[in-house]
Amino acid sequence: MANQTSIVDKVNKQLLIGGTWRDSADGTTLEVDNPATGGVLARVADATVADGAAALTAAADAQAEWARSAPRDRSELLRSAYELIVERTDEFAELMTLEMGKPLAEARGEVVYGSEFFRWFAEEAVRISGRWSTAPNGATRLMTMKQPVGPTLMITPWNFPLAMGTRKIGPAIAAGCTMVVKPAAETPLTMLYLAQVLQEVGLPDGVLNIVTTSHSGEVMEPLIRDSRTRKLTFTGSTPVGRKLVEQSADQLLRLSMELGGNAPFIVFEDADIDKAVEGAMLAKMRNIGEACTAANRFFVHEDVAAEFGRKFAAKMTETTVGNGMDDGVTVGPLINRKAVDKVTDMVTDATARGAEVVTGGTRIEGDGYFFAPTVLTGVPGDAQMAREEIFGPVAGIQTFTDEADVIRRANDTEFGLVAYFFTRDVSRTIRMSEALEYGMVGVNQGIVSNPAAPFGGVKASGFGREGGFEGIEEYLETKYVGLAL
């Protein structure tokens, strides 16, 4: 394993604008912390409003030529980038662990997952097509064609530093769109290293521009309101997403919004309990619980609640908390102290309302931002953790009596990203899949994310889809041509 210094030192800490790495206009930098220690990991350029404008100009200037590029060339470029990311799995994994905290084994899993978006969209790039038909009156031929939307702004979150980038950049490259990417200030290193990989495989100057900044709103709002921008894609919280949608209204931008979640995890009385517990660990503890797809509300049928709760708590107790770079660690730190405070407040609120802590329930003192894996039972529906995203290693269990009851309670939220349920009843599987008001549903499994499937939600969880056949459509406009005979 390479040492920490060599991995971080390989990453260019500047802004990438028009193919050139450069300092911010005023020379300022922002600190990137290691959440396992609380110490400073690196300093990267802190972009100004002028830097953002320069990045958009570079993207706009490169758009026409990039749109004319051959689909096969774009495909081969993505394929080469995929292979180089895989070749550098250990480096990407270590960067993510250092700047975000997830255990090294899990970070390697993200490299596999994230790189697959480049491979998938490499294959989609050469399959962009329209149609040809005869008008009903026979007098006209109808032709449609797909063309790139144009310069795209991308705002990515800190919790999946690689995959949230590749999931947006992959289809944009495949479709022929140029980009300005603003990664989260907490985790910019992985995105900067990804940009270096894309440069190495020959991505033309100006197609991808990276702007790291500690004042996102100030830098990005002028770009959102600029007439040269044609699309905005954002992954993050619903409140921020709503604000961005408002800012985009003047330009009527194409939007993809992947926002917050409040995922129900439902265990029916006929479920395989051991399999449900295994799924619960994946749905809850993936990424230390810091995922919009994380199971947030556990609804367990009253007949099996005791067994499920006991086995689930036992599995949570078996986890090992620590620095993600250390051998044997399965649960890393939360992203910062604010995140630990939020989770602590949620547990306090739930217990004040009558919930009981079965295991965990406390922050872990010392360096870094750690919280013990936690299971609570008897969590009331009005508890804070039942209404808001927890974003931490905490599971609150409620019980239910019948199918109609749990459907009502599962849907009783403004969010609608993903839902999970476990049952052996085929008819119930169909009923539940149709009744749950969510963009994605996991049946007898705790992870649904897949590059070959459309990722996205409904209601306050946003709109648009990433991944799957649908993913590239978000970056394409449909043009109709009527040909008179």
What does this structure look like?
The active site is at residue 258. Belongs to the aldehyde dehydrogenase family. Keywords: Oxidoreductase. InterPro entries: Ald_DH/histidinol_DH, Ald_DH_C, Ald_DH_CS_GLU, Ald_DH_N, Aldehyde_DH_dom, Aldehyde_DH_Superfamily. The chain is 38% helix and 22% strand. A hairpin with a 2-residue loop joins strand 1 and strand 2 (20-22). The protein has helices at residues 4-9, 49-67, 71-87, 89-100, 104-125, 163-175, 189-200, 216-224, 238-248, 273-285, 305-317, 337-352, 384-387, 403-411, 426-435, and strands at residues 15-17, 20-22, 29-33, 40-45, 131-134, 140-148, 152-155, 179-182, 208-210, 231-235, 254-258, 263-267, 295-301, 356-359, 363-364, 370-371, 374-377, 394-400, 415-416, 418-422, 440-443, 458-459, 462-463, 476-484. By secondary structure, the protein is an alpha/beta fold. Helix 3 packs antiparallel against helix 6 (163-175), helix 5 (104-125) packs parallel to helix 6 and helix 10 packs across helix 11. It has 2 domains: 4-259 and 462-484, 3-Layer(aba) Sandwich (Aldehyde Dehydrogenase, Chain A, domain 1), CATH 3.40.605.10; 263-451, Aldehyde Dehydrogenase, Chain A, domain 2 (3-Layer(aba) Sandwich). The protein contains 15 helices and 24 strands. It starts with a helix and ends with a strand.
Low-confidence stretches: none
Percentage of residues in DSSP E strands: 15-25%
The general outline is: globular
* Percent range of helical residues: 25-40%
CATH topology of the largest domain, what is it called?
Aldehyde Dehydrogenase, Chain A, domain 1
Structural class: alpha/beta
Radius of gyration: 23 Å
Strand order of the largest sheet: 14-17-18-13-12-20-21
Mean pLDDT: 97
Which second-level CATH architecture of the largest domain applies? 3-Layer(aba) Sandwich
Strand tally, please? Answer: 24
Number of domains: 2
CATH superfamily membership of the largest domain, which one?
Answer: Aldehyde Dehydrogenase, Chain A, domain 1
Query: CATH top level of the largest domain?
Result: Alpha Beta
- Helices, by number, come to 15
Sheet having the most strands: 7 strands, mixed
- Spatial separation of the terminal alpha carbons: 67 Å
Keywords: Oxidoreductase
Protein name: Succinate-semialdehyde dehydrogenase/glutarate-semialdehyde dehydrogenase
GO molecular function: succinate-semialdehyde dehydrogenase (NAD+) activity
Domain Aldehyde dehydrogenase: 21-481
